[in-house]
Amino acid sequence: MLRRNEVAAGIKDYILRHHLKPGDLLPTEAELCEAVGASRSSVREAVKTLSALDIVEVRHGHGTYVGRMSLAALVESLAFRGLLSSEDDHLVLGEVVDVRQNIEQGFAPQVAQGLDTDQLARLRTLAAGMAEAAERGDDYLELDKQFHLLLMEPLGNDLIQQLTGAFWEVQSIVTPTLGSEHQGALTLTASLHMAIVEAAEARDAAALRTAVAAHYDPIRELIASVRRPSTA
Amino acid sequence: MLRRNEVAAGIKDYILRHHLKPGDLLPTEAELCEAVGASRSSVREAVKTLSALDIVEVRHGHGTYVGRMSLAALVESLAFRGLLSSEDDHLVLGEVVDVRQNIEQGFAPQVAQGLDTDQLARLRTLAAGMAEAAERGDDYLELDKQFHLLLMEPLGNDLIQQLTGAFWEVQSIVTPTLGSEHQGALTLTASLHMAIVEAAEARDAAALRTAVAAHYDPIRELIASVRRPSTA
DNA sequence: CCCCATTTGTTCGTATGTATG
DNA sequence: TCATACATACGAACAAATGGG
């Protein structure tokens, strides 16, 4: 009885055959049991698997719906891997930083050309808000996330938006294992975001690339300092 | 009783608290029930969720182990999203191609400098094998995948290796919905891979960037032709 | 080879929590 | 308040796979 993968595949087939779109309602568990020929428990476990992948979405007392297939699964898996490796040398965290930097640098030309005046103004507002928060000694996680999401907005590529958000979340989950952040690093990082804004306002792709690279220097330094406590 | 996320979090906590590494054996389902205070059904569903994310790995009749945390979940989620959107305009497939190209172009300098003679020789062998297969009219999926994985090898970044493999798999799953591939496209793509090899052998980062970009032209053309059948 | 213990896989029945009308 | 429909949770039983004596 290899119901395990069969049932999940059967449900995915059902979605494809009926041309269901994200948000559409799926049959009840009982009807799914009949459709794929399995018991409620097996269907439940299959639904649980698909739910973890955000292929379906379950709302208690309401029903099961086709999911929006977000990258929440990627976040959870990568974040946990990062937490595990944080006990050693924070290898995963460094790799995530590399990938984030490469994405933002690679699309610098399209970003520098594509940002409209409204998006540029919002970027400046976010960077200014980060500087103000740093002055008060507060962190600015949500501002930082919005900044990087907004930066990729002109690409019109939803996958890149989601990857940007996903890798940002992984980094924000794993970074605290490095230790406390100093206010000096907060202020510095805020100013580096403003430098990105100014390069974007100048439509200077090369300057944008270097500003993005410089923006990741503090986190790289922090990772390196933890790997060799002698320099700390 | 919102055991749902509690139990999964409890199991993840157990792994972190006991400093378990990928491949280590977890307690039996019965012991996990006692450890987190839930019924076997609930524990099983939580394990199923973690299994979908490759955080744990279950072997029938043997036990439950800490997983490798691969990006299989990302592949399954993205591939299904691509299959759903394939009924419309293949939006997701185009986005995946954009991301793949950006990654390979962005790391072109490190790749051009970092490839050793053995890796270059293997790249040439793979590209030659693709050309031979195209001559016979055969496809060369596995050769193509190995090619792109090998290209990223000198970076020494495991996350990039896995992302490369994951996006490659998504593309290979979704692409067949575009229609049959012509032998002409196969031969052309094979020669474009050889052009990448030659740019890498010359240690020419700029040439490598353009060769990588050109390599994605056929698939972009195929997507565009399906979106407007009038030009086909 | 068979037998047996261990462990996960599948199914069913029942009771409870939740949202809609 | 009540009724209905649904997902959630638990416990028990049996099936299937693995490994060792």
Automatic annotation (TrEMBL), chains A, B:
HTH gntR-type domain residues are: 1-69
User: What SMART domains does UniProt report for this protein, alphabetically?
Assistant: FCD, HTH_GNTR
Pfam families recorded for this chain?
FCD (PF07729), GntR (PF00392)
Q: Which GO terms describe its molecular function?
A: DNA binding; DNA-binding transcription factor activity
Q: Give the top-rank taxon of the lineage listed in the UniProt record for this protein.
A: Bacteria
Name the InterPro entries on file.
GntR_C, TF_FadR/GntR_C, Tscrpt_reg_HTH_GntR, WH-like_DNA-bd_sf, WH_DNA-bd_sf
Q: Which UniProt key words apply to this protein?
A: DNA-binding, Transcription, Transcription regulation
- SUPFAM superfamilies reported in the protein's UniProt record: GntR ligand-binding domain-like, Winged helix' DNA-binding domain
Q: PANTHER family of this UniProt entry?
A: TRANSCRIPTIONAL REGULATOR, GNTR FAMILY, UXU OPERON TRANSCRIPTIONAL REGULATOR
The name this protein goes by in its record: GntR family transcriptional regulator
